[in-house]
Write a structure and sequence with these properties.
Pathway: Glycan metabolism; pectin degradation; 2-dehydro-3-deoxy-D-gluconate from pectin: step 1/5. The protein is an alpha/beta fold. The chain has seven helices and 20 strands.
Length: 330
């Protein structure tokens, strides 16, 4: 199930990389190449995830699929090598610009350059100034009682922000922002007030990928003043609170609580500012290119007798070594 799901995303990434090159313009080579690297890296991540999802039974069908996947991985890695060479060439022409937030901010905002003016405004405006498209409230004072109901009303492939105001409350639901739901914005009443809570975990038979209390796949997602948690506990092993696999995604003043695998920073470009993330083992992990600005990473003790703790772990493979987590001050 995981393999089929992620390969569909990988095919999408390969297609949008091809489409991006069809409109190649030397004047915008830096942006085009960064998009291509991001999406090819995404495709490679999905291919590796599929390969790792096999049960290693050694059946003939599994062996044949694994061989095909390894060939696909090699082709995608070759594409990344081509991008690297083009980056080297355009760098010589002074067309490349680095994308870390501290080097791409407009003015002194410290934000990545892919954050538009409209999105910057959403980060600082009061909710009364924003006029949300939908309001979620458990007490009946909003348009919807659950976040999932509000997401069902979001137009697909929307080009501008669709703001969902989530009033104070603990929302015990598995929330998924599908790939077709672009530019969705969650605004809460505070990370300790508006909270999405779940308890799916590996010990109970759920694949790590699917344990996420909150998963976002739609590009351009933003969350502000929100809390996310997986309450399964240390004894339940892998139990993800947040899985992020949407490009150009922002979390501002959010809290993510869990134990093992709290934040699955899966792939693409992400920016976290003024966030708190708690956990024990690999509690920030994945293959994304992410900046954590002025964030608090809090190590939790799995049990009173335990002394084994684990720091954040960005993934890297021989064919895709340039993924990284950057932890910075503002």
């Amino acid at each position: 199930m995981v393999c089929k799901e992620v390969l569909c995303f990988g095919i999408d990434d390969l297609q949008r990389t091809i489409d991006r090159y069809d409109s190649f313009n030397v004047a915008h080579a830096d942006r085009i190449l960064d998009d291509a690297r991001t999406w090819l890296s995404g495709a490679l991540t999905y291919q590796h995830t599929c390969l790792e999802a096999f049960d290693k039974s050694g059946s003939p069908a599994e062996i044949d699929i694994a061989k095909a996947l390894n060939r696909s991985i090699s082709f995608t890695a070759n594409g990344l090598n081509v991008v690297s060479e083009m980056e080297r060439m355009t760098s010589g022409l002074q067309l490349r610009r680095k994308l870390l937030a501290s080097e791409n901010a407009a003015g002194d905002t410290g934000l990545p350059r892919w954050v538009s003016f409209g999105r910057r405004r959403l980060l600082v405006s009061e909710i009364v100034e924003i006029k949300p498209n939908a309001t979620v409230a458990q007490d009946g004072s909003g348009d919807y009682a659950t976040i999932t109901e509000a997401l069902a009303a979001v137009p697909k492939k929307r080009g501008e922000a669709f703001v969902i105001y989530i009033k104070e409350g603990v929302y015990k639901e598995k929330v998924v922002v599908n790939r077709s739901l672009t530019n969705v914005v969650f605004i809460g009443d505070g990370p300790d007030k508006s909270k999405i809570s779940g308890e799916l975990n590996a010990v109970d038979g759920v694949k790590t990928f699917h344990t996420a209390t909150f998963a976002v796949m739609g590009d351009g997602f933003m969350a502000r003043d929100m809390g996310f948690e997986n309450t399964a506990g240390a004894a339940k092993h892998q139990a993800v609170a947040v899985r992020v696999q949407s490009d150009m995604t922002i979390f501002h003043n959010c809290r993510m609580d869990g134990y093992q695998d709290t934040l699955y920073d899966f792939t693409y470009r992400h920016f976290y500012r003024d966030c708190a993330i708690t956990g024990t083992v690999d509690f920030v992990f994945g293959n994304a290119k992410s900046v954590f600005q002025n964030c608090t990473l809090l190590l939790r003790r799995p049990s009173p007798a335990s002394t084994m703790l684990s720091p954040p772990t960005p993934a890297a493979t021989p064919t895709n070594p340039r993924r990284s987590f950057s932890i910075t001050a503002p």
